[in-house]
Design goal:
The protein has 292 residues and is of the alpha/beta class. The protein has one domain. The protein is 26% helix and 18% strand. The chain has 8 helices and 13 strands. Helix 4 runs parallel beside helix 5. The longest helix has 16 residues. It starts with 5 loop residues before the first strand and ends in a 14-residue tail after the last helix.
Length: 292
């Protein structure tokens, strides 16, 4: 294993990620890939200037906007010097609160509270809601209603898009530099899935994913992206909703393998090798073969 790419990796086979467990964090240049979306915050802390304005683009099945349980501890997370210390923020007052402070749905609120300039322009592409101009509330699917946190009110521009086909247009605009600032691009693989049925959205054929991968690679080469964070979210992409030992990574890998062109050849080989070793991905179906 080449440790230069692995900020963190658990011993043994990868298992459940759930709300706050982390199996791995892979990093090459300004690209961070993990199983749990909470690790995106670590990438932002290391790639973004606390005093600089950015465009925040969140591409995810979910909004990930839960408010953490201890607001007065939000800003101190920027003092975490090592990834192990960063992960300790999951445990703050766990003896009082049943839910972790840092988790897969609180990390954005923590970042926004601590570094509001990172959210000067906001664009959400999620399956959960379509944001209104005031960003006060959103319309979810017909089965639910949702209220958004007031902490996001105040950004200069707020948009929301739910149509899958808009992703390509957003990436094209990124390549052309049409956003106000350099972009914090936050992608969850579960965006391409129906998370209730645990199957890939029918719109996202392999050909469509290839088109997105090419656009994403061009966007990274354009210099308009400050940092790219990707979560594989195996439980949300799983066909059976389970992630025991080596199970359930196969569905999210079916998307991830197309996106690997964003990595250099050496990083790509390293990532594939470890994923094959620690998960259930099918070694015979690799889009990018790991050749010696």
């Amino acid at each position: 294993m080449n440790n230069q790419y692995w900020t963190y990796i658990t011993e043994g086979n990868f298992s459940k990620s759930q709300a706050a467990s982390v199996n791995f964090l892979f990093n090459e240049r300004n690209i961070y890939i993990s199983d749990n979306h909470l690790c995106a915050l670590w990438g932002w802390l290391h790639e973004c200037n606390p005093n600089e304005e950015y465009t925040f683009i969140h591409i995810d099945h979910h909004n990930d906007l839960k408010i953490p349980n201890i607001v007065d501890r939000l800003k101190s997370i920027g003092n975490a010097k090592t990834f192990d210390n960063f992960l300790k923020y999951r445990e703050i007052h766990m003896d009082i609160y049943e839910e972790p402070f840092l988790s897969y749905d609180t990390y954005i609120q923590i970042a926004h509270y601590s570094y509001p300039k990172w959210f000067d322009e906001i664009l959400f592409l999620t399956k959960e809601c379509n944001f209104t101009e005031t960003f006060n509330e959103c319309r979810l699917n017909p089965m639910k209603d949702c209220k958004l946190s007031d902490s996001f009110i105040g950004a200069k521009e707020k948009k929301g898009i739910t149509n899958s086909c808009q992703l390509e247009k957003v990436l094209e605009n990124m390549i052309q530099g049409k956003f106000q600032h350099k972009v914090i691009l936050n992608l969850d693989i579960d965006y391409f899935f129906d998370c209730d049925l645990h199957i890939r959205d029918s719109y996202w054929s392999n050909e469509k994913i290839d088109e997105v991968a090419e656009l994403l690679n061009t966007a990274m080469e354009s210099g308009n992206v400050q940092v790219l964070t990707i979560a594989m979210s195996p439980e949300c992409c799983s066909e059976d909703g389970k992630s025991n030992d080596k199970s359930s990574y196969q569905p999210s890998w079916g998307i991830m393998e197309h996106l690997l062109r964003i990595l250099t050849d050496n990083a790509k080989k390293e990532f594939i090798t470890i994923m094959q070793e620690k998960t259930n991905i099918n070694k015979n179906s690799q889009k990018y073969e790991n050749k010696n």
